[in-house]
Design goal:
Elements (H helix, E strand, L loop, with lengths): L2 H8 L3 E5 L3 H13 L3 E5 L2 H11 L3 E5 L7 H9 L9 E5 L4 H9 L4 E4 L4 H11 L7
Parallel strand pairs: 1-2, 1-3, 3-4, 4-5
Helix pairs in contact: 3-4
Length: 136
């Protein structure tokens, strides 16, 4: 996909990235904005939950290991909310463990990406889980 085609493809998408690492948030935000996405970030699950209500993202990327409210708890709270249950949640972790992946599925996540992730992996997850609205 060319850059302009990619930008058109992802231009109407609202993406949320929840991670306690400023570097990860900034990296994901930069990659996603270059693809044309609108991005909002949060440092942890508590901050994210209030932003989700206002922002209504099309897809949410959430780190597993965070203080206060971890990724599993955050995902479970999102999926237990009637309005946000259909919103795809992709877990992010620096560990590539089977247990983590299984636990992510149990709380309702659609996918699991291992950090560090690539632009291709982020956009691939979006393409796989979000119905993209095209303007023809």
């Amino acid at each position: 996909m060319t850059n302009s085609a990619e930008e058109n493809y992802f231009s109407h998408l609202k993406v949320m990235v929840i991670d306690d690492s400023k570097t990860i948030r900034r990296t994901a935000e930069t990659l996603l904005k270059k693809a044309g996405c609108s991005v909002v970030t949060a440092e942890d699950g508590f901050e994210a939950l209030s932003k989700i209500v206002d922002y209504e993202p099309d897809i949410i990327f959430v780190d597993i290991m965070m203080p206060r409210l971890d990724g599993y708890q955050t995902c479970a709270l999102i999926k237990n909310n009637q309005k946000f249950r259909p919103t795809p949640v992709v877990m992010l972790s620096s560990k590539d463990g089977l247990f983590d992946k299984a636990r992510g599925k149990i709380v309702g996540s659609e996918q699991y990406l291992t950090k560090p992730f690539t632009k291709k992996e982020l956009l691939g997850a979006i393409g796989q889980h979000v119905e993209v609205q095209r303007e023809d």
